[in-house]
Amino acid sequence: MPVLNRRQTLGLASAACLALPGAAWAQAACAISTAATQGAMTPDAALKRLQEGNARFMAGAPLNCDLRQQVRGTAQAQAPFAAVVGCIDSRVPPELVFDQHIGDIFAARVAGNIVNDDILGSLEFATRLAGARLIAVLGHSECGAVKGAIDGAQLGHLTGLLARIRPSLQRLDYSGVPSSKDAALVQRVAERNVRDAVAQLERAEVLRALIDQGQLKVVGAMHDVATGRIVWLA
Ligand SMILES: [Zn+2]
């Protein structure tokens, strides 16, 4: 069968399970992202791809893509449709929880999914120069970096990293002595941290211009390490 592009693949998505045998469906869904398909994709379509990927992950039905074929297909160029800013937490690898493969997404990972100048520069490359249509900031439950920030943990260079999360705690309406033993507080700070990162990215000049042109969207999401489910923040 002919190789389908991303748009055709998306069009097939809803009916594919009925219309195509499993192997053919997997082949279509595993078609690599190209400059043409990336350019034709809207930010909302990119978001839908990530949502569908997490649905497959949740259902225990990830795509079984031929990764070596994808390596060959991306050897000359890459055109990922999205970028993800995630934590280094071993339970939240973006490619797995979004069921994405070679050449699909840029992934910037740093403890507590914070945004500093280097992460921002990476995202400017991913979007303005490499064409990604969506930036997803992906926080998660039970985040050790968030807990450390709440408790004021200090260790080498980690101290400075956690200081980037502290303002998210201070912006919350919270009375009392903050403690990482307060599970509800940990979750609230983690969500606030994601929302603050999204706002920070939306203010950045290079990204702002792409957003204003309708070329880019920045969204926040929270991953639940107990279930694998990703909830998108409104
Ligand atoms: Zn974390």
Structure characterization notes:
GO terms for molecular function: carbonate dehydratase activity; zinc ion binding. It comes from Melaminivora suipulveris. Belongs to the beta-class carbonic anhydrase family. This protein has 234 residues and is α/β, with parallel strands linked by helices. The protein has one domain (41-60, 79-233): Beta-carbonic Anhydrase, Chain A. The chain has 13 helices and five strands. The protein has a five-stranded mixed β-sheet, sandwiched between helices. Strand 4 (217-223) and strand 5 form a beta hairpin. The longest helix is centred in the C-terminal third of the chain and has 21 residues, at 183-203. The chain starts with 5 loop residues before the first helix and ends with a strand. Mean pLDDT is 92; it is low at 6-17. Bound molecules: zinc ion (ZN). Residues 87, 89, 112, 140, 143-145 line the site of zinc ion.
Output the keywords.
234 residues, Beta-carbonic Anhydrase, Chain A, 5-stranded mixed β-sheet, 49% helix, binds zinc ion
**Backbone CA Rg:** 19 Å
Morphology call: globular
N-to-C series of helices and strands = HHHHHHEHEHEHHHHHEE
Main sheet, how many strands, which sense, barrel?
Answer: 5 strands, mixed
Adjacency order of strands in the biggest sheet: 2-1-3-4-5
CATH homologous superfamily assignment = Carbonic anhydrase
Average pLDDT works out at 92
- Tell me the CATH architecture: 3-Layer(aba) Sandwich
The helix-and-strand class reads alpha/beta
- Ligands, ions, cofactors: zinc ion
The tally of domains stands at: 1
CATH class descriptor name: Alpha Beta
- CA(first)-CA(last) distance: 40 Å
